[in-house]
Give the backbone structure.
Amino acid sequence: MIFYITTPIYYVNDIAHIGHSYTTIAADIIARWKRLNNFDVFFLTGTDEHGAKIAAAAKEKGKTPQDLCDEMSAKFKEVWKLLNISYTDFIRTTEQRHFTAVEKIIQILFNKRFIFKKKYEGLYCVGCERFYPQKDIDENGCCPFHKTKPILQSEENYFFKLSAFQDSILKRITNPNHKEHIEIQPEERKNEIIGKLKNGLEDISLSRSIVEWGIPLPFDKKQTVYVWVDALINYITGIGYPENTTKFQKYWPADVHLMAKDILWFHAVIWPAILMGAELPLPKQVYAHGFFTLNGDKMSKSLGNVISPQELVNKYGVDASRYLTVTITPFGSDGDISWQGLTLKYNTDLANNLGNLVSRTIKMADKYFNLKVPQTNFDLDLVKKVAGFLKENFIVNMNNMQLHKASQALQNAIALVNKQIECDAPWKTAKTDADKLASYIYSYLQAADIIALYLLPFMPGTAEKIWHIMGASGNINEIAKKYFADFIIPKNGFSISKSQLQNTESLFPRISLTVVFNKKRLK
Ligand code: ME8
């Protein structure tokens, strides 16, 4: 079973912020989930390094564009390492392999007469790297996204006959039975795309004569390939196109292109048109999640209100940052975030719910059995309940990219065990029935074990830590793969060691909200 997932390739004019890490962590969670389900996963991310925006950023910093790209793409890689992102490959559009792929695709489109020369005048937003038709400019004459005035540019460019693909794209998006169906998610964003498609498609400029920092057109070296066309092709370069046919055929078409709604149009319309023009299969799904705002404002460096992944990690640790980033808003919808909201969720879900379950179970094992819990008359009821609940509520949501719902199922499963502990009141049983007490605590350990397996995609380090703390036997990843194949509850021996007791305390220390209400950060 093959699974190919991509993130956008990010512009290197700036460093990664929480918006970029949102998409990348989400893709990582899905990639890890698929691996646990025994898929052969290819997970591609990378950096978008050409175009006017990058050239301008380099000039401003007094660097060559290539130096800026080298420096910034290395920074993106560092952030992904920090966040434990398990990508298969990291593509940079300045790599030779990408030049080869772009030249090949452009030449095919040219040979098939989908490219023609035309004089064009239009309003160009460098921030978006695109021309805007007058009707899409806002009432202040600005780009609807960047709120800056686009520049009137007049050029003789090569154009791509996007209009030729209008009907075929519409059919492929709207008809789920089409053999080349592209599923656009979520539904409301699909409807927006359909609406726009029905209004008609205009041909788009495919080259720039005034942008030097790009890939020269194979048939006219005075012009460079428009950065968006260049960028989209990364999805096939990354899996070996055109030179490694075996690898390319193994992974293409992509199962999911993941991104935010800002760039859905490029992925849902322009990319399929390029692929159709080149007679290549279309991606199976394009998923556009929502946009984060911070305390009600668009995040931007100029407003000074950007949350960086490093800041998050400093405050919450790696796994909690992964968890909070992807679960703080419903996946697919826009959402406003704040330090206060993140910390509240940290304390509720991680310190109080998950951390508490692990810590109280281990403490009881220590207090009542000196960490050696006897396996007498072990009752599986609670474990079966937790396992059944997760199987029913977690998996379906993961497979539908409803990450916030899947994580909520996990929280509910943890709460279920915590509630059972309250209800059993083992501290009372301790006075009367040692066998029953052992069976209680053993069942909490077993239930926490199952929870750790499901926690793996979201919090790989924490899941492994919990596994170790509980002294569960075997490699958690291997056991999880087996578990998700047949759902037979692993019968673990627990050999908890004294040294692990401290680790329990440090899993998720509570964070005081006063620390978060740093006046400088809040408006
Ligand atoms: O658009 N909320 O790169 P980019 C949620 N190079 N997600 C956000 C976000 C926010 N506030 N801000 C950014 C480009 N993102 C092109 C892509 S792909 C062939 C070329 C995430 O650096 C989200 O995934 O501007 C969004 O689509 C992407 O970063 C835009 O990254």
